[in-house]
Amino acid sequence: PKLVKASASAEQFAPSNIALCKYWGKRDAELNLPINASLSVSLDYLGTHTRLIPIEGQVDEVWLNGQQLQPGARFSRKVSAFIDLFRRDQTLCFKVETRNNIPTAAGLASSASGFAALTLALNDALALDLPPEALSILARMGSGSACRSLFEGFVEWRMGQREDGLDSHGIPLDASWPGFCIGLVEVDAAEKAVDSRSGMQRTVETAHLYQSWPLQAAADMSKLQQAIQERDFSLLGQTAEQNALSMHATMIASWPPLLYWQPDSVAAMQKVWQLRAQGLELYFTMDAGPNLKLLFQRQDRDVVLQHFPNLETVEPFGSE
Ligand code: 2P0
């Protein structure tokens, strides 16, 4: 978009999302174009509220959860660089207030919901009136996974073929699954040592095992679509868990090795496997961090909570 001046303040919300088939690896690092398609589920009310207020000045003011950040802080620079995509007149600046209601303890990435909410707020403040797919493309430029947070429910990120990335964006699946539950298991809330951007790059450049990842992801995309269409929870859970472990296998096979797990992560995985051996339909997925996200159905919620007390649970499609 080519813009002249801000028209108004704006406030928007976007949900966080959990990928069932992961985005891992870029074919273009500047445009955030992925090597594989991915599929996620958005987390309903858990996400980011972003408010934009036009201000006089030479620099944006970035606030995160009620605290003003230094203009040189990493997050501030990322936000300003993203607003630059929308800015022709460099004197157009904003106060950006970002609030995450994702329990920090869950250690969930907030960049997906953050850039999605910022994109929606810019669309309003600048009166762009862009269609959802265009907004998804723009959000992707801030953070790849943000292109999925533009939508509710199950979302596919089509990788696209074009070099300019205009066919690489999120598409919501026309599917609902009442009773579908996600549980957030906190292992460690601390910020990770290696961010996703560098982790992906290291994996693509150094892990021979990564060559098999695009094939795994393509096969998993089909299985997940089938599972969602047929509401086959076992197929969904198995596919998501194997997909996450396959992604982690490529990370571990990088050099220097990239292992996001902690002893408690492995203990939680073993607990899930044990419960499953006893007949419980419980699966997990994990991202670039030590925390687990559990997948289960409403009818098993009480049993799951007995084994994982203090579990924050979300039902993206409501209960049955
Ligand atoms: C995902 N992750 O699909 C995967 C699984 C982490 C592991 O998308 O560099 O923060 O900003 O495009 O979007 C996190 O990566 O990376 C992510 P950038 P992003 O959810």
UniProtKB/TrEMBL annotation:
Please list the residue ranges annotated as the Mvd1 C-terminal domain.
187-308
The cross-references to Pfam families, in alphabetical order and at most eight, read:
MDD_C, MVD-like_N
Q: In the record, what terms sit under GO molecular function?
A: diphosphomevalonate decarboxylase activity
Q: Where is the Diphosphomevalonate decarboxylase-like N-terminal domain?
A: 14-166
Enzyme class (EC, first level) = lyase
Membrane-spanning residues where?
Answer: none
Q: Which domain of life is it from?
A: Bacteria
> Which EC number(s) does the record attach to this protein?
4.1.1.33
UniProt keyword list? ATP-binding, Lipid biosynthesis, Lipid metabolism, Lyase, Nucleotide-binding
UniProt-listed SUPFAM superfamilies: GHMP Kinase, C-terminal domain, Ribosomal protein S5 domain 2-like
Q: Which InterPro entries match?
A: GHMP_kinase_C_sf, Mev_decarb, Mev_diP_decarb, MVD-like_N, Mvd1_C, Ribosomal_Su5_D2-typ_SF, Ribsml_uS5_D2-typ_fold_subgr
Q: Which PANTHER family match?
A: DIPHOSPHOMEVALONATE DECARBOXYLASE
* Family of this protein: Belongs to the diphosphomevalonate decarboxylase family.
Q: What is this protein called?
A: diphosphomevalonate decarboxylase
Q: What organism is recorded for this protein?
A: Marinobacterium alkalitolerans
